[in-house]
């Protein structure tokens, strides 16, 4: 029975970087955003639900019309909640199926909205990646070529970082003060031990 682990953190925290280090250790990682995009384009049942909720223009020749959907949900919390209520259960079920196929002691799902989507309920452990807000703002400005105000607006739409970290079982500090690799290696040893205990039941 595989140990199911989540990695989460706010925008610019570096959760994908941490997930990639686990990947280098031979741990399979599912990136929730990529998986959701794939599902929204390939899962016929999910596509039908999206079309039913948002109209025929949701797809162009079978491919998700991202600008159309983005315009629908942008600044419209009710529409965003509707979209999430359709997509999240499908991605959670898909991730669970993926986890069951892995043969390593543990596998990882990397997701920004782990707690917000309720995905943590079927995970055994959650790792939070923490970075101070000023550093996160600076990283996203450089990555996306946007202003500090635009990044702050995105941050304000996300779950409070302290609250999110408080819900995690382990914290990796990505503050450019502490080295990432030793933190990940230490966690890898802990998670292998947890996986062993789970297997012993």
Describe the structure.
- With 201 residues, this protein is of the alpha/beta class.
- It has 2 domains: 1-28 and 102-201, 3-Layer(aba) Sandwich (Rossmann fold), CATH 3.40.50; 33-97.
- Helices cover 57% and strands 14% of the residues.
- It has 9 helices and 7 strands.
- The protein has helices at 15-24, 32-42, 44-54, 66-73, 77-101, 133-144, 148-157, 161-166, 180-200, and strands at residues 3-8, 29-31, 59-60, 63-64, 106-110, 125-130, 170-173.
- It has a 5-stranded parallel sheet, sandwiched between helices. A two-stranded antiparallel ribbon has the order 3-4.
- It is globular and about 50 Å long.
In short:
This protein has 201 residues and is α/β, with parallel strands linked by helices. Helix content is 57%, strand content 14%. The protein has helices spanning 15-24, 32-42, 44-54, 66-73, 77-101, 133-144, 148-157, 161-166, 180-200; strands at 3-8, 29-31, 59-60, 63-64, 106-110, 125-130, 170-173.
The total tally of domains equals 2
Poorly predicted regions: none
Give average pLDDT, whole number. 94
List the secondary-structure elements in sequence, H or E. EHEHHEEHHEEHHHEH
Q: Give the termini separation.
A: 9 Å
Number of strands: 7
Largest sheet: 5 strands, parallel
